[in-house]
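QA checklist item 7 of 12: single-chain prediction sanity check.
[x] sequence parsed
[x] length recorded as 328
[x] structure emitted
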Amino acid sequence: MDVGDHAAGAGHVPVMLGRVLELLAPAVDAARAAGRTPLYLDATLGMGGHTEAMLRAHPDLRVIALDRDTTALERSARRLAPFGDRVAFEHAVYDEIPGVLARLGVPSVDAVLFDLGVSSPQLDEADRGFAYSYDAPLDMRMDRTQTLTAAEVVNGYPPAELARILREYGEERFAQRIASAIVRERERAPLDSTRRLADLVRTSIPAATRRTGGNPAKRTFQALRIEVNGELDIWRRALPAALDALPVGGRVAVLSYHSLEDRITKRVLAAEAADTTPPELPVPLPEHEPRFRLLTRGAELPSDEETTTNPRAGSVRMRAAERVREAT
């Protein structure tokens, strides 16, 4: 997601809300049909918009709401207070799902949502340091109880590691030039502000490139945010953990905002939806049949109307799946 452009003025609107409700409703119905109180896991609570809509749509629904950002939890708790004890709030990163469920004594959840974008308050509050459109301390921590900040990355990482992060996480073709410029600048004085970093990136990139594609710092800021928050490593662990927590009929929906996250999502879901019977055998083996079926054909995109009214939705890609077989 282009955090700088978003921060310039989008509202707190849940992304692809109608489609998320549509995709997850059958999982809630399946729980009721099985005689269970339906349980929904919002693994990335944020402002709580998706959860509020789910609670209103399903009066018997109970919710486990996770977020690594204590500020988001506090705000959403106020927003969702009318729903009382139907919501359990948990300060946790989404790869900690197995531990959270074990602590709560919950064997499974019926529906799971991951909205992997940076939440609006994180972008709109200048002191969080996510956006290049504000001058702020280089922070970028989603969980402000952790120690690693973006300032520590740019001022402390070796040049080769900086270039790797920019290249892999930001898909930045001028990664080496930018990393070299950062190293030269930090030798003069530590880089501690978003404005200085954004200006440095801009002057490191050829003039012709600066004239197209939006703010030239957006890829660098994305890369640093992913590194500071361990986003891709966490996501590689979190999605399989969530799938394991679903019963037959349970569903997961994922909203990704850049190609790296979406690639991991696509790979994990495709593997779960594949028949792994050895090709030399004449018939599928039951224990090798798919555990999940895909609910979206490829990645679904938001409507033109939504991207017009909600800029945060501009880069979203949604994938969803339903569990069809228990593990053997």
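[x] summary fact logged: The longest strand covers residues 317-323.
[ ] second reviewer sign-off
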